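Try this one yourself first.
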């Protein structure tokens, strides 16, 4: 186990030295932790349902590098000396291979690094795919951050996991219930946008950038990424539950919650700037001095979203319980109308420059 861990670490050295890989790996590790309950429950049920097959599985695993060393004790206890020698040979051969791999990769890691000359970057990325306007520049920059900044990547990766967590606790219907909640979380992810900008926000202040272009640019970047995610989650939830009759209220309420969250977070990000971890740090780290402000902003935003989403929620529940398609359509229209109004009001709350937002 010790040699294997060292061999794996040295083998991954070229990747571990890259900041992007470490940050993405840290986010990927979070996903199984969020699903730890469902994973353990599923494994327990699987083992309980196939307990008769466990001896046969253990027999075959004992002849692999992963199980040979663990089979020695039972071989000796049972007096099966031929099997013990065979398992010992596999374990020693595995150890030798791991030591050789460790030595080889360690020597390569300690060698002088050559400069990666000749690497060039062609084009300006997403900036070339958006209109050459202030709004397009802000949207392209924000969307680039959401693709490369782990603080944004972690927020996006967590969203598709929420329906699975809800489904574990409330059954298949929980998957459907979680979609509006996930949409609201995804829309509220820009509540710390200006805080995440850090000192780079001076460019927005010094440039002749209108506040409405800044707000709409950030909203557009999140909508381009989050809109398809919300739709896919909603369609998957409808397919899993088989409740296609609830397509209108579920999708309408989810998209309305997403739009409302975008409007509320647009005001929150410009109204309250909190200390956040700088770019390049772990997305799970925290910075002292800003916890109360951040928590207060989150609670206030979620409270406003709860009030805005109450009419659509009530109508959606009535449509689901009565099976009325008319109520479902009304719920969708009301949710989308409230979301659009919240988004427009959030944009209108800014004056000509973003740093003059209320």
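Now uncover the answer:
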């Amino acid at each position: 186990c010790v040699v294997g861990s060292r061999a794996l670490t040295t083998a991954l050295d070229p990747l571990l030295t890259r900041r992007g890989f470490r940050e993405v790996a840290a986010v990927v590790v979070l996903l199984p932790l969020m699903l730890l309950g469902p994973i353990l429950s599923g494994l327990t049920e699987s083992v309980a349902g196939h307990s008769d097959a466990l001896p046969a599985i253990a027999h075959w695993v004992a002849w692999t590098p992963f199980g040979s060393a663990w089979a020695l004790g039972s071989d000796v206890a049972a007096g099966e000396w031929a099997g013990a020698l065979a398992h010992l040979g596999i374990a020693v051969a595995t150890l030798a291979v791991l030591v050789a791999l460790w030595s080889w990769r360690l020597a390569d890691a300690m060698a002088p690094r050559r400069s990666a000359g000749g690497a060039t970057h062609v084009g300006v990325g997403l900036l070339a795919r958006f209109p050459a306007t202030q709004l397009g520049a802000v949207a392209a920059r924000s969307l680039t951050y959401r693709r490369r900044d782990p603080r944004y990547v972690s927020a996006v990766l967590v969203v598709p996991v929420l329906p699975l967590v809800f489904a574990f606790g409330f059954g298949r219907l929980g998957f459907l219930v979680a979609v509006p909640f996930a949409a609201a979380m995804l829309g509220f992810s820009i509540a710390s946008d200006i805080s995440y900008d850090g000192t780079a926000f001076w460019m927005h202040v010094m440039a002749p950038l209108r506040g409405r272009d800044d707000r709409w640019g950030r909203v557009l970047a999140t909508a381009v990424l989050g809109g398809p995610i919300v739709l896919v989650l909603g369609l998957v939830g409808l397919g899993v539950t088989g409740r296609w009759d609830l397509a209108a209220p579920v999708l309408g309420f989810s998209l309305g919650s997403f739009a409302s969250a975008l409007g509320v977070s647009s005001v929150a990000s410009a109204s309250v700037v909190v200390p956040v971890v700088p770019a390049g740090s772990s997305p799970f780290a925290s910075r002292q001095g800003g916890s109360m402000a951040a928590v207060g902003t989150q609670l206030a935003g979620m409270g406003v979203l709860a009030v805005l989403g109450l009419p659509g929620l009530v109508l959606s529940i009535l449509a689901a319980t009565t099976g009325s398609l008319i109520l479902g359509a009304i719920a969708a229209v009301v949710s989308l109308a409230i979301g659009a109004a919240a988004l427009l009001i959030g944009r209108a709350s800014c004056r000509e420059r973003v740093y003059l937002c209320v």
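Discussion: The chain is about 75% helix and 0% strand. The two ends are 58 Å apart (CA to CA).
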